[in-house]
Design goal:
Layout lengths: L1 E2 L4 E2 L15 H21 L4 H18 L12 H5 L5 H21 L1 H8 L27 H17 L3 H12 L5
Length: 183
């Protein structure tokens, strides 16, 4: 039906999910493996160390084992941080918290549509302000070095350069510092 003079039209829209067969358990397991592999590749391409990536995967596997289903099914009510690792050291809780929030950011950016198509679920991180672990490992305020400190650093770099050790690396550091770190 067209509305005269406005160029607007109405169309019948139907939900295609009702015509799609639900994903099998095997398909979901294979997709979960592909997603985890993609997460590892994304972390590696971001330049993270292998040990960091191994720690992330270990944290995800431990949470997945506890949960018994794909992590994208996790909701705030599951209370992993409130019940399961409540007595763990704060560093462990914070590492798992960071891993889970990073994983969900990855899921939301790269696989949100696919997960919705396969499961009907909308990916949403189960960690919110009410159930995030206490503590913080945020970077502390960094105060830039004073001019005398920069001078001492450059003098030391020149000394190393003159001694002939790691010449290429020292030249790069001196060039960066001499230019104020700007390219």
């Amino acid at each position: 039906m067209k509305l005269r003079g406005l160029g607007l039209a109405l169309a019948a829209v139907r939900d295609l999910r009702e015509f799609r067969a639900p994903a099998s358990t095997e398909e979901l397991e294979a997709f979960e493996t592909v997603v985890l592999a993609g997460f590892v590749l994304a972390r590696a391409s971001a330049g993270l160390a292998d040990g960091t990536i191994r720690g992330d995967v270990g944290n995800l596997e431990q949470m997945r084992t506890w949960f018994g289903r794909p992590l994208w099914d996790m909701e705030p009510a599951d209370a992993y941080f409130g019940r399961v690792i409540r007595g763990s050291p704060s560093g462990t809780r914070l590492a798992r918290y960071q891993t889970l929030t990073t994983y969900f950011a990855f899921l939301e950016l790269r696989h949100k549509v696919e997960i919705h198509q396969l499961t009907g679920r909308v990916v949403d991180c189960p960690i919110d302000e009410m159930n995030r672990p206490r503590g913080s490992k945020d970077a502390q305020l960094r105060i830039p070095p004073t001019s005398p400190e920069v001078g001492a650093l450059l003098a030391g770099a020149v000394g190393v350069l003159l001694a002939g050790r790691r010449t290429g690396r020292v030249l790069a550091v001196v060039a960066a510092l001499a230019g104020g770190g700007r390219g």
